[in-house]
Amino acid sequence: MRLAVIARIFGILLAVFSLTLLPPICVSLWYEDGTHSAFAIAFAITLLTGLLMWLPVYDVKAEMRTRDGFVVTSLFWLVLGTFGALPFFISDEPQLGLVDAVFESISGLTTTGATVVTGLDTLPPAILYYRQQLQWFGGIGVIVIALAILPMLGIGGMQLYKAEMPGPIKDTKLTPRIAKTARALFVIYITFTVLCFIGYWWAGMTLFDAVGHAFSTVANGGFSTHDASMGFYANNRAIMLVSIVFMFLAALNFGLHFVAFRTRSLRHYLQDSELRFWLALIIGSVILIVGQLWALDIYSGQDSFLHGLFQVVSIATTAGFASEDFSAWPAFLPYVLLMLGIIGACAGSTSGGIKAMRAMLIMKSGLRELNRLVHTNAVVAIKVNRKIVPTQVTDAVWGFFAVYILSFIVLAIVVMATGENFVTSFSTVASCLSNIGPALGDAASHYASVNEIAKIFLILAMLMGRLEIFTLLVLLTPAFWRN
């Protein structure tokens, strides 16, 4: 590991990130909400820190190694979240302490959507805009966005791309050069954002809300400009439909979108094994939850379908928007939704969770073992998209699942040890580790009532979930630090 190389990259990325603090200044000046000074101070601190890290090593030309890539990818999210918390901490509104400010910032960047902020409807517009913007940058991955810029500065980026892009099975690159890959993903991401904004605005949102919700919808983040989340627009079915469509699109593998843009064909979507598996899961869950809401007479038939469909898509994509307080739904319904969020959506999307690909491989692997009990000499191959999955891939999936469960149990016990009850601890850890956002128990509406020590561990859970656990945990292994 070479500190000079890492310092140079951190310096450049912090300097680039400081530019994202300029749009909120413009929003503040436009609405005259008085928060521009907080963003200006945060901009100056972030830019100055980046320059101080970059200047001493600006002429270092050494190539970054895989180990360096893991360090940058893991630590930069924490560093970025800390600097991103400055406006929340400095501003008089919403008056957040240091832990709460970092929690809100990292929740935005990791697209978790868990919030400690209340009274959103009366907050300064610049603060509201900034929360949504954090999620938008986090959705595509700040590191991946930066890869379109770093190659022009003479910095290799393939190691970062490998560490950042999720999913157990994927092509290394969609295009021959990593910069082109990052730009291709970014163009698709921007296209979806613009279309989502137009859809929201056409359906009846204000210009400000349309921009903010387009940011968080395409990022599958879940932050809203209203305390009621999408429930604020629950009576506008056009807005709800736009939200469902773009949450769903953002939850699909962006590699599939890339192929669709390139080939002008939709056929490969239905040929994808992971997408078919996830669609079956979504359809089954919608039937179950809508049926229960209707049977229990919670809503009318149409409202049962609307809220059931919206909430299933929202939680399954880990967007975390709420059309109603689903934590108050009876019986097992809230836990079904939470389990959907833990599974998550497709690999290579803006969603969190274990990922449908891993869930599918675990299911196929389990069915194969059952088959072997009946046919002891049978050789049963696991296939995805008509290709045999190598044994090392299924082993890696089981390893990930084991580490995920162990991390979940340990974190839940630790949060309970801080004084939170079982339901709150279980659901908040599940939500943060899977980057879902909404939880149950005392955190059903927001996380403000969760104690600060628990929030620190929930921040760790969000980072682990965003980096899919291994990227962060590998830094804790002695072998990683050996020469």
Question: Care to describe what's here?
Answer:
The chain is built from 23 helices and two strands. Strands 1-2 form a two-stranded antiparallel ribbon. It is globular and about 65 Å long. It is mainly α and 483 residues long. The termini are close together. The longest helix has 27 residues.
What structural keywords apply?
about 475 residues; mainly alpha; two-stranded antiparallel sheet; 23 helices; about 65% helix; globular
Concise overview:
The chain is mainly alpha-helical and 483 residues long.
* Low-confidence runs of at least 5 consecutive residues: 145-172
Structural class: mainly alpha
Instruction: Give the C-alpha Rg.
Output: 22 Å
Total count of strands:
2
**Biggest sheet details:** 2 strands, antiparallel
The helix tally amounts to 23
Helix percent band: 55-70%
Can you write the helix and strand succession as a string? HHHHHHHHHHHHHHHHHHEEHHHHH
- Strand neighbour order, sheet with most strands: 1-2
Mean pLDDT score: 86
Proportion of strand residues:
under 5%
What is the CA–CA distance across the termini? 8 Å
What's the overall geometry? globular
Helices and strands, with pairings:
Layout: H1 3-18, H2 22-31, H3 36-54, H4 66-84, H5 86-90, H6 98-109, H7 125-140, H8 142-146, H9 158-164, H10 178-203, H11 207-218, H12 237-250, H13 254-263, H14 267-271, H15 273-295, H16 301-316, H17 333-343, H18 356-374, E1 383-384, E2 387-388, H19 391-417, H20 422-433, H21 452-466, H22 470-473, H23 478-481
Antiparallel strand pairs: 1-2
Helix pairs in contact: 1-3, 1-4, 2-3, 2-7, 4-6, 4-9, 6-7, 6-21, 7-11, 10-11, 10-12, 12-16, 15-16, 15-17, 16-17, 18-19, 19-20, 19-21, 20-21
